[in-house]
Amino acid sequence: MDRGKTGLGLMCGGAAIGVAALMALTGSLSMEAPARAEAPPRTLPAPPPGGVMGFVVQDFVPPVIQGMDACPKGTSPKVRDIYLASLPADERARLERKENEPELTKRWQATVFGADGTNICSQPDKFDRPLLTTVQSAHAGGLDLDGDAPGESCSHEEFTAPDGRTGIDNQEYRVMGCTLEWRGKDGIGGDLLTGMRQFHASGEWTQVILLRGVDSLENDDDVEVIYANTPDRPQLDSHGNFLPGYSFTISDKPPRHRNALHGHIVGGVLVTDAQDIKLAQTWGQGGARDIRGARTAYDFRHAKLRLAFQPDGSLRGLVGGYRPVFDVIQSPAIGGAGAALAAGIDCAGTLATLRKYADGISDPKTGTCSGVSSAMNLYAVPAFINDVPAPSARIAPAGTAHAGNKTL
Amino acid sequence: MAFDISRRLALKGMMNGAAITVGVPLLDIFLDGNGEAMAATGAPVPVRFGTWFWGLGVNPSRWFPDNPGPGYDLKPELEVIRDHAHKINILGNFNVMLDGAPNLPHTSGGPAIRTGRALTAEGGLPGESFDVTIGDRIGTRTRFRSLETSASGDPRNSLSGRGGGNLNPSEGSAAGLYKRLFGTGFKDPNSADFTPDPEVMARRSVLSAVTDQRKALEGAVGAADRQKLDQYFTSVRQLENQLDVELTRPQPLQACLVPQPVADRAVNAEIENVVANHALMTDLLVMALACDQTRVFNMMFNNGASSLTRIGSTITHHQLTHEEALDNRLGYQPEATYFLNRIFEAWTYFVAALDKVQEGDRTLLDNTLVFAHSETEFAKFHTIDNIPMMTAGSAGGRIKTGIYVDGLGTPISRVGLTLQQVMGVPIDKWGAKSMETGKSIGELVA
Amino acid sequence: MRLDTGMTRNASLAALAALAGLGAASLPASAQPADLPIAAADGSPFPPGVRVRKLGNASVYTDAKGKVLYGLDMRTLLRWAPDPARFCNADCAQSWTALAAPAGSTANIRYPAGFEKTADDRFMDPRKAPDWTVIDGAQGKQWVYKGWHLVFTRAGAKARPADRDGADGNDADADANERRWNTLKYVPPPPKPAAPGVVTTAFVDGAYAFADREGRVLFTGKCERDCAWRPLPAPMASSGLGEWKVSLTGDEPEWTFKGKRVFVGTAGDSSTVPSGGQILRP
Predict the structure, then answer these.
(1) Maximum Cα–Cα distance for chain C, whole Å?
(2) Which chains pack against C, by 3+ Cβ pairs within 8 A?
(3) CB within 8 A of C228, min separation 6: which ones?
(4) Cβ distance A344 to A350 under 8 Å?
């Protein structure tokens, strides 16, 4: 029994292109929002005797509102396009001719690198790049976060949710929502569900939710919520949907992500008190890139769950919180130059834009914010969840490769 | 069966116009009445095993059939195999279980398929690849235990090895492959004059001396050293076997034609070049199998993170899978898909080349089991569940063909287990941790 | 297979995520760097003056004066320094002193740079490095632990024989950029007993135990009728090694150790050994 499935490699091998990024980013491609915001359900079943309910999370994706209204000028340009845009019109036209493609490639790829062996994805702080195209519409999915983090937020515009809730904080969407990875080529979705679900289906990022002390699905002012990762793989139907009713055990091996939250149910919607939430999100942690001690994670600060019980027994809603800005580009940063060369991602421009729109995790001394508000749509199906006591320290079998010191 | 003149012409065509020397006429007399065994010795016609790898997966909805079982439906990307589909199986919906090991994009999938284990280091293999295990079973009596080839020219492009960091290097040029196969040391099995090479005889006798020392040594050392010695002498014995082969008059083989030398040519990742290089290498490999120079092979069409390009372009196949947006109206990436189409054309060429060579009533393809696979399902996301796989040929009648097998999400190691069992490796369980399995794919075993 | 080793190395990291363990569950800071199993020492000689000391629940390395050694993983520094070995100057050097290599040492390892493809015989691949190597650091030639970890002691006023953070063997607090200096913890090198190839060892409950190739603990005990313990299978033809013999009395051949039956646990820790089972140790 091997718990703690966590690694998630990043680099693409071969051909000189390590695209770490792609999972993170393509993992965030646009799609039809799978977890429509929580329309109040009509009839809800009674909770089970004992008040214990378990769920496994099938969909965990940014709440992109599809269509091109959000990005009237199109998606954010790639590194190649940024280079072309920087040229005089006639030079641009010359380089865009088919026969000059090798020259163009050589020239735009050179913009990825800087002095002393730096590149825009490995050392994004060291580059000054143009900002991304941001979301222009007034609508976004997400939660009102700053109400629960008084004095810790920086000024920013707020969105209105598609269901009419106001005061929505989602600066991550404002910055990333016009990237090709989030929105797709023509403003309609498709990739995201596949990309993200892979991680959740494989036991690498699989999340479970365990509720205890549920007396009513309509109203209950005291519910214990465990939001955690499991190494167990969900069973899938032929469309890739998670089958309900399977058992999952919360990870008992480090790094163990088990968030104990407190929530209350009002009108069939469970909302948890703001608290930091951490969940598995591992990039490139294997082999030479096993960075130990610097394991990436979904690190949501002042985070909340807002989940509506559905008549069919499932849960739909959101998790929201503030993420450190660098976390958003963690995957392409690990990918390094390859992320810029193979996927055209401008990590430095993205980081600069995220910093400009940062609205959370403020430094008490300077008042500067280093985090962006963020949200993920959630859809979870009923499951049996085994909670386990805190793990004991773990020691490697002799001869196991780790610390990158050996290869097997 | 009479010699089929049209096939001979086809073979000429395969050699890109190069003239072919026909050593001896192809005669049924080499085979017994049923065409299943060698007439001279009664030994069964050799059964060969090989792999064919391509990088960057497929567009799943345009590749996997809808209906499991025999007579599967062909989606657009597999339409090209239609004429051979009755000799090809499609394997889908088998999963790679990593048990906490990282999914290293383009790196984890291949080794998991070949070793039944999750890769935990950057390079190499987490265990012995099953083509090597099968080679130990069927490849010890041929001149080459196995042949590794890389059509895109990179010798490091390999998924074959005994585990650890060392991979069996691939031959990257067709000219180099020709020299290895038909240069010094080649004994035409159909040639009348066989004389053992005195140099080989000398080496053989040196090794015999070692054999005597071995016994003395084994008695004298401790347990741990005996383990090491055993490993060492296993490789010595293998060498002895191979030298024995070179000292034995080869069995005449009906389809063995020694091709003309192949000229040196540019080797790079431009798709047209890779396709041409693959065709040349395929033709040579086919003759190496027909002449029983090897019974095991590994062909890498491109590498995992495919560096294939179109002539005149600098944009790689790999780059396209990531950078090119999904065309949501088409449902796939058209530019990246261009390369997939070329890959499956090449696969069809490979299968057809084996199928053109007649061995009695069967073809070389029928006497071979080729296992084709990629390292990812859909490259844009680096997915490693449902990696596309195929088999071609029936291993001398040991497996059924023309079937689409739906693995229903079971471990991908079932494929390796089944292939090894079919090729006579005596195991009932294979793989490690969540990929340990004793459940072979019953619907394939004849 | 991956081909481009250069790219790999470029892949280091960025922000240090905090230690694992969340919300309610706070983990013992047991790790070498954070949350993965501690790698056993490879048995190679320590640098001059370096020794092992028991501190709290952990055994950690110290320098000649007893100051706890800390490691900083170079892969986490790439964001700030394209050559991470050169990271610790200026502010960092105020707080951390590199463990200097002896005068006249030659660097034998370096951080793999971006796209380099050719091996340089003068430098080892960090993935294959022995426990202790020497790198050209920001403060001169300094020691590197297990290929990746720049070795430091606390500098100046903070340097005391029993460091505040290291006193219980725990890691240092993360700095403002979430970079974490980890105490260098010590696990003894594994023994090499005469045992069949399927048997290896694992460090379980403070000492080495026998394990199978997958790291599952081996144990013995009286397996009552109908028990579900899994015996360690053996090849029929083997004549055994040392105290390991093949028993052919059951349905299938199985290994015995000192005449006792051998069973395989389900994982590499003692909690997976069923009650009534005793862990086998070399």
Answers:
(1) 70
(2) A, B
(3) none
(4) no
Can you give the pLDDT at residue C36? 59
Pick from B397, B444, B402: which is nearest to B419 by CA?
B444
From the list C4, C194, C214, the residue facing B433 with the nearest CB is C214
The neighbour count for residue A241, using CB atoms within 10 Å, is 16
Mean pLDDT confidence for C187-204: 86
Average pLDDT over residues B356-380: 93
Residues in chain A: 408
Pair of tokens at residue B333: 């990436």
**Run of H or E including A183:** helix A180-183
Closest C-chain CA to B127: C213
d(CA C153, CA A171): 41
Closest C-alpha among B28, B42, B33, B48 to residue B290? B48
Instruction: Rank B44-53, B214-223, C132-141, C187-196 by mean pLDDT and report only the highest.
Output: C132-141
Q: Copy the structure tokens of residue C97.
A: 């002193």
Decide if A286 and B329 are in contact by the 8 Å CB cutoff: no
Sort residue A146 into left (φ over 0), alpha (ψ -120 to 50) or beta. Answer: alpha
Q: Tell me the C-alpha distance between C6 and A117, whole Å.
A: 13
**Higher per-residue pLDDT: B301 or B25:** B301
Residues of B in contact with C4 (CB under 8 A): 305
pLDDT tens-digit map of A343-363 = 899 999 999 999 999 999 999
Residue A389's pLDDT is what?
A: 67
**Please, which residues have CB within 8 angstroms of residue A387's CB and are 6 or more apart in sequence?**
A210, A226, A228, A250, A258
- The pTM for the full model equals 0.76
Rounded Cα–Cα distance for residues C140 and A370 (Å): 34
Rounded to whole angstroms, the Cα distance separating B206 from B209 reads 5
Residue B42 pLDDT > 80, yes or no? no
Tell the residue number behind the tokens 């590197």, with chain if given: C144
At residue A308, the pLDDT reads 97
Query: Any chain B CB within 8 A of the CB of C39?
Result: no
B373 in contact with C at a CB cutoff of 8 Å? no
For tokens 């403070």, the residue is: C206
Q: How confident is the model at residue A289 (pLDDT cuts 50, 70, 90)?
A: very low
Q: What are residue A319's phi and psi, to 5 degrees?
A: -120, 135
pLDDT tens-digit map of B277-328: 999 999 999 999 998 889 999 999 998 878 888 887 878 888 888 878 777 6
Cα–Cα distance, A301 to A278 (Å, whole number): 8
Residue contact B322–A289, C-beta within 8 A:
no
How many angstroms separate the CA of residue B156 from the nearest CA in chain C? Answer: 7
**A with B: how many residue pairs have Cβ under 8 Å apart?**
180
* B432 contacts on C by Cβ (under 8 Å): 214
pLDDT at C158: 54
Measured distance CA(C22)–CA(C9) in Å, rounded: 30
Q: Is A150 helix (H, G, I), strand (E, B) or coil?
A: coil
